[in-house]
């Protein structure tokens, strides 16, 4: 059985805004990076069960890059997104209303290349960037 990692944060914004900023490629390209020296220059998202997404993630200096993508298994507007990545790992994201805003929680199957701590830190950093971007817009 795969090891699961969970990252979470609460975004102080309405559910509709959180959903839009999480899924609209124009917004994804502005927040989807684990560190300031990385970016997502191109994003594609066909948000529906069976639909595909692809986010091109690159070092800003051009030294390295990769495609992060997959196929949606479940799409419940403003509530849940589940997908299978290109390497067949599963990801589930929940959007739960709280008095403080929308609690965004992503659980994903770990891969074998990077340590669990590195994976959790990277995904948490991206989620933190999302929170900061969404709250400032």
Q: What would you say this structure looks like, in words?
A:
- Helix content is 27%, strand content 44%.
- With 137 residues, it is of the alpha+beta class.
- It has one domain (4-136): START domain (Alpha-D-Glucose-1,6-Bisphosphate, Chain A, domain 4, 2-Layer Sandwich).
- A 7-stranded antiparallel sheet has the order 1-7-6-5-4-3-2.
- β6 (90-98) and β7 (101-109) form a beta hairpin.
- α1 (15-23) packs across α2.
Number of helices: 3
Name the CATH superfamily assignment. START domain
CATH architecture: 2-Layer Sandwich
How much of the residues is beta strand, in percent?
35-45%
Order of helices and strands: EHHEEEEEEH
Which structural category do the helix and sheet elements fall into?
Answer: alpha+beta
Give the tally of structural domains: 1
Average pLDDT, rounded to a whole number, is 97
Identify the CATH class.
Answer: Alpha Beta
* Strand count: 7
Helix content: 25-40%
Strand order of the largest sheet: 1-7-6-5-4-3-2
Cα shape: globular
Largest sheet: 7 strands, antiparallel
The CATH topology is: Alpha-D-Glucose-1,6-Bisphosphate, Chain A, domain 4
Domain Activator of Hsp90 ATPase homologue 1/2-like C-terminal: 12-134
Protein name: Polyketide cyclase
Family: Belongs to the AHA1 family.
Pfam families: AHSA1
Structure at a glance:
The chain has 137 residues and is α+β, with helices and mostly antiparallel strands. It contains three helices and seven strands; from the N terminus they run E-H-H-E-E-E-E-E-E-H.
């Amino acid at each position: 059985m795969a090891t699961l990692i969970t990252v979470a944060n609460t975004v102080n914004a309405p559910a509709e805004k959180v959903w839009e900023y999480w899924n609209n490629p124009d917004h994804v390209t502005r927040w989807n990076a684990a560190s300031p020296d990385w970016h997502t220059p191109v994003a594609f998202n066909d948000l529906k069960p069976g639909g595909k997404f692809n986010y091109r993630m690159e070092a800003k200096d051009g030294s390295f890059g990769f495609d992060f993508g997959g196929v949606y298994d479940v799409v419940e507007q403003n509530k849940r997104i589940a997908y299978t990545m290109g390497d067949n790992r599963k990801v589930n994201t929940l959007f739960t209303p709280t008095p403080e805003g929308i609690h965004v929680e992503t659980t994903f199957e770990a891969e074998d290349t990077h340590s669990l701590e590195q994976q959790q830190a990277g995904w948490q950093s991206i989620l933190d960037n999302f929170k900061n971007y969404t709250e400032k817009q």
